[in-house]
Design goal:
Largest sheet of chain A: none
Keywords (chain A): Cell membrane, Membrane, Sugar transport, Transmembrane, Transmembrane helix, Transport
Pfam family, one (chain A): BPD_transp_1
Low-confidence stretches of chain A: 270-274
Helix content of chain B: over 70%
Number of strands of chain A: 0
CATH class of the largest domain in chain A: Mainly Alpha
GO cellular component, one term (chain A): plasma membrane
Radius of gyration of chain A: 23 Å
Radius of gyration of chain B: 23 Å
Number of domains of chain A: 2
Mean pLDDT of chain B: 88
Largest sheet of chain B: 2 strands, antiparallel
Oligomer: heterotrimer
CATH architecture of one domain in chain B: Orthogonal Bundle
CATH superfamily of the largest domain in chain A: MetI-like
Protein name (chain A): Maltose/maltodextrin transport system permease protein MalG
Number of helices of chain B: 12
Structural class of chain A: mainly alpha
Shape of chain B: globular
Strand content of chain B: under 5%
Subcellular location (chain A): Cell membrane
CATH class of one domain in chain B: Mainly Alpha
Chains: A mainly alpha, B mainly alpha, C alpha/beta
Strand content of chain A: under 5%
């Protein structure tokens, strides 16, 4: 053990302070979710109070949270799987085949990352309604998939480019088809990228409000719609909102705790190794 | 042939959900019209754009958006990269646990983030003011002054998004060869020299990715501002997305709102287009 | 063979499925919150009694107009009954979204026996009629901003409840010096313009001159906004960033001695479980300069023109606005005030709603917000301008008003 220097003490102080800064706001909401209103609205923060589960009971009876959970899981999973399959194939096509205009096409996809959502909401609503999908989970699934797609294509292009050419060439000499090369050689190598795309896409979809509210109906609402109905209410019930917020964010935080490594590795993908 | 087959699904999704609607928005931006009164559309050609660039409120929103993006992005990068650097030569398991803790806010939805910070910033019940009072700074105007409201929102945004930078920058740092740092130590370089001569230059590509992802998101921030200030006080925090939303659904000026969102898109392309090209080319090498 | 069986099974399931939903379904659109919770209970009863299914789509207020507009402009037929405030009514009616109710209200088979249309206050019926006089929504819920004060705190400080601007300033100044002040909904948004509308009426002036032209530079308007700027200096810390809800909180938990907030949110103030000051609060019209005034803010039920169940929807709307249902609603949520004159003086309701007298007084002299097509733009500009003068005691009120006047006058 080295002797602690001023520098290392300062570093520890900084890191611990950053921990506090990160945790306290979240802890506050979690604590509030177990408080009665009178304990939430005090001028000095109350740490000792009689915990109550009323807020949770209330939240789960007032809104159909069970259904919202189910819808959220379906929307997030299906849109993510679509994005990854479609996006990875497109990335493969754009990198490993000498397509004309490949760069221009890739640029076009990336442009999609910049589109402001408000400009596409109305036309998308009209389209979804015209093909009879309004009020089904297909609306948010399609919207989320499209909004995530540009980024995922870009991410996967970075990963696929990093796969050494020789591997694919060797496989080709062994008589593999292009698709066999993809599945046998490339896919296993780019798995970390797939994991990152998976997490980021799930995260977006899980939290997205606008399309999940406007393209759906009562039976197909997702969790953010449920929370918004508490948080955005004319009169906010903070205990109730906090309970709903806690019930929504805690599962994701726990998942995130275990997969954060993938988010990091994946996002940097090609950039890190380059 | 196979390549096109692989490309078609993605192209179909992007074209139907993004490009066609964008075309419609472009078309609608040339008209003066209200939703539900399409039969009374008036073709005004570029008038909506002229109106945008002559309306002080719109220009204020543009300015706020730029300011918000610059502040939030630079603060996020400074905090995020700073913490990542501190974590770099730390005992591995400890660093991993800390990173996992720091990662928590990333996955929280923006509505919840604004709920959290509305409570934090409340002058009567909020923790921020409780702390400020301890230091005798209870008079801080926070969200209620046009001078400080934007920075308060930036701070909440940094809380939400800096963790993402920490994770990504950490991953970027792992591939910088240890020998470089050894050499620096032998040369007696001070930590700042190490940061600016070794770490940051070798992190450039990662930084470009981060600027691209975070910058474009910051430029379009909606929920956080809407939840915390609704654009006030005195429009000090009205961003382009808030402005376009108000025009579309509060003032019922669909054509003008579409023009405002096309301007937003144009700004994004001008600001971040170079980064997009760079990263596309880097990958193309 | 197996496929055929499966297909038949599928058909059977589908038929069975559609059979089970053959009962009439009505979809209702409104905002979420305590009032919606109380209403849901009533609607469930109605559904059970009439053998229909009611889908109660209560969502975030901030997204409500967007959702209603998207559905009605696209004619999806999603909604059978929508909750509409006076501020959106003109736009909806103009766009042809709303079914005229004239022929429905005259049909006793649809309205029920004792549904007495003349009992609705005239003001409500007028606002929900279009330019040709066709009624397009049934007035349902009225609210107005009021002054709420903590009787104990005012008595201890030796003040009577303020009735005029000068008295209000004196009280607010005193409490500001004590470290609190008056809680005001002065966030840049709709509440601050609502307060302005009441104060203008209380100063016997208006946004518009007698000839209908925008008239913000008139001295009485300038005087009113100057008063708001002065009052804001004595505002409770944070007031300039608050909507009604935050004002409510500081009153409800006993931190603020007085404040201006919306009567529709009063239930929680007197609820022992949620309030630290239940029983200690007094209610009065917002203090005035020349005469007592209030703001008539309302919500009513309208049937979208694209609804496929208009008659059934009207029956439900008529039931919701019947005396029995309105009484039940006010019992469940005391801050619910209806447009039925016969219920305004109901002693049973007044007992649970200590604000009822003040609210009725303010509503009786209530004005409405500007309702002309360009009004939302005017109110957005005014909200911004007001926000700039209340956050800066040195800001030039006259200059701000003439700026808004110049920008908006052409639209009226």
């Amino acid at each position: 053990m080295r002797k602690p220097t001023v520098g290392s003490v300062a570093k520890w102080v900084a890191l611990v302070l950053f921990c506090v800064w990160t945790i306290v706001p979240i802890a506050l909401v979690v604590l509030n979710s177990f408080k009665k209103a009178k304990d939430i609205f005090t001028t000095t923060p109350t740490l000792f109070f009689t915990p109550t589960l009323d807020n949770y009971v209330n939240a789960f009876t007032k809104a159909n949270f069970g259904l919202f959970y189910l819808n959220s899981i379906v929307v997030a999973l299906v849109s993510t799987v679509i994005v990854i399959v479609v996006g990875t194939f497109a990335a493969y096509a754009l990198t490993n085949f000498r397509l004309p205009f490949a760069n221009a096409i890739a640029g076009g996809f990336l442009l999609g990352k910049l589109v402001p959502v408000i400009s596409i909401l109305l036309p998308l609503f009209v389209m979804i309604n015209a093909i009879g999908l309004r009020g089904t989970l297909a609306g948010p699934i399609i919207a989320h998939a499209a909004l995530n797609l540009p980024f995922v294509i870009w991410l996967m292009m970075g990963f696929i480019r990093d796969v050494p050419r020789e591997l694919a060439q060797a496989a080709m000499i062994d008589g593999c088809t292009r698709m066999q090369i993809f599945w046998k050689v490339i896919f296993p190598i780019i798995l970390p990228g797939v994991a990152a795309a998976f997490v980021l896409s799930m995260q977006y979809s899980w939290n997205e409000l606008l399309f999940s509210l406007q393209l759906t109906t009562l039976d197909t609402y997702t969790l953010p719609v449920g929370i918004a109905s508490f948080v955005g209410a004319i009169s906010v019930d903070w205990g109730l909102s906090s309970a709903a917020a806690t019930a929504t964010m805690v599962p994701l935080i726990i998942v995130g705790f275990f997969v954060q490594k993938h988010i990091a590795q994946g996002t940097t993908g090609g950039a890190v190794k380059g | 042939m196979l390549a096109w087959l692989l490309l078609i699904p993605a192209a179909a999704v992007v074209v139907t959900v993004m490009i066609l609607p964008l075309g419609f928005a472009l078309f609608a931006s040339l008209f003066q019209y209200s939703l539900g009164q399409e039969d009374r559309m008036v073709f005004v050609f570029l008038d909506n754009y002229v109106r945008f660039f002559t309306d002080p409120v719109a220009l204020h929103a543009l300015f706020n958006t730029l300011l918000f993006t610059v502040l939030s992005l630079s603060l996020c990068l400074a905090v995020g990269v700073g913490v990542a650097v501190l974590l770099r030569d730390m005992h591995r398991p400890t660093a991993n646990v800390l990173r996992a803790i720091y990662a928590m806010p990333i996955l929280i939805s923006p509505i919840i983030v604004s709920l959290i910070w509305r409570y934090m910033y409340d002058p009567t019940y909020g923790l921020v003011y409780w702390l400020l009072h301890l230091f005798g700074l209870g008079g801080f105007p926070g969200l209620t002054s046009s001078a400080t409201a934007l920075i308060c929102i930036v701070i909440a945004d940094v809380w939400h998004t800096a963790p993402f930078i920490i994770l990504v920058a950490s991953a970027g740092l792992t591939v910088i060869p240890e020998e470089l740092y050894e050499a620096a130590r032998i040369d007696n370089a001070n930590p700042l020299q190490v940061l600016f001569k070794i770490t940051l230059p070798l992190l450039t590509k990662v930084l470009v990715v981060l600027i691209l992802i975070r910058g474009t998101d910051a430029f379009r921030t909606f929920d956080l501002i809407y939840g915390l200030t609704g654009g006030g006080p005195a429009n000090a925090t009205t961003s382009l997305s808030i402005y376009a939303y108000q025009q579309a659904f509060e003032n019922n000026q669909m054509g003008y709102a579409m023009a405002a969102s096309i301007v937003t898109l144009a700004c994004l392309v001008v600001l971040f287009g170079p980064f997009l090209r760079n990263s596309a080319q880097d990958q193309g090498e | 063979m197996r496929n055929v069986t499966l297909a038949m099974l599928g058909v059977a399931v589908l038929v069975g499925w559609s059979g089970s939903v053959a009962a009439q379904t009505l979809t209702v659109s409104r905002w979420a919150g305590p009032q919606a919770d109380a209403q849901k209970v009533l609607l469930d009863q109605y559904a059970a009694e009439h053998g229909i299914e009611i889908r109660f789509d209560a969502i975030d207020y901030g997204q409500l107009k967007q959702k209603q507009t998207l559905n009605m402009s696209t004619k999806t037929g999603e909604y059978d009954l929508i909750y509409v405030p006076e501020a959106w009514f003109g736009e909806y009616s103009e766009a042809g979204y709303l079914e005229p109710l004239t022929k429905y209200v005259e049909n006793p088979e649809l309205t029920g026996e004792n549904w007495d249309m003349l009992d609705f206050s005239r003001a409500g019926m007028d606002v929900y009629s279009d330019a040709d006089g066709a009624l397009k929504a049934l007035p349902y819920f009225a609210q107005t901003p009021l002054l709420v004060y903590n009787k104990t705190m005012l008595e201890e400080a030796g003040f009577e409840p303020p009735q005029t601007w000068d008295e209000l300033l004196a009280v607010a100044k005193y409490f500001k010096e004590q470290g609190t002040g008056i809680a005001l909904p002065f966030r840049q948004g709709s509440a601050i313009t609502n307060v302005l509308a009441v104060l203008l009426a209380g100063n016997e002036t208006d946004f518009f001159a007698a000839d209908g032209k925008l008239d913000l530079t008139n001295p009485a308007v300038v005087e009113t906004v100057n008063f708001m700027q002065d009052l804001a200096q004595y505002g409770f810390n944070g007031s300039n960033g608050w909507h009604w809800d935050e004002v409510n909180k500081v009153l409800q938990f006993g931190q603020a001695p007085l404040g201006i907030t919306a009567s529709g949110l009063f239930t929680a103030l007197e609820d022992e479980d949620q309030s630290n000051v239940a029983g200690q609060l007094g209610y009065a019209p917002i203090p005035h300069n020349k005469r007592v005034a209030g703001l008539l803010q309302m919500w009513g039920w309208a049937i979208p023109a694209d609804s496929k169940n208009k008659e059934e929807a009207f029956k439900l709307a008529a039931w919701l606005t019947s005396k029995e249902a309105l009484t039940a609603m006010s019992e469940a949520d005391p801050s619910f005030i209806s447009f039925r004159q016969s219920l305004g003086s109901d002693p049973a309701l007044a007992a649970t709603a200590p604000w009822l007298q003040a609210a009725n007084e303010a509503l009786a002299s209530g004005v409405t917000l500007p309702l002309r097509p360009a009004a939302p733009e005017l109110l957005t500009s005014l909200a911004t301008g007001l926000s700039s003068v209340v956050t800066d005691p040195n800001a030039d009120v006259g200059g701000m008003l003439s700026g808004v006047q110049d920008a908006e006058a052409g639209k009226f």
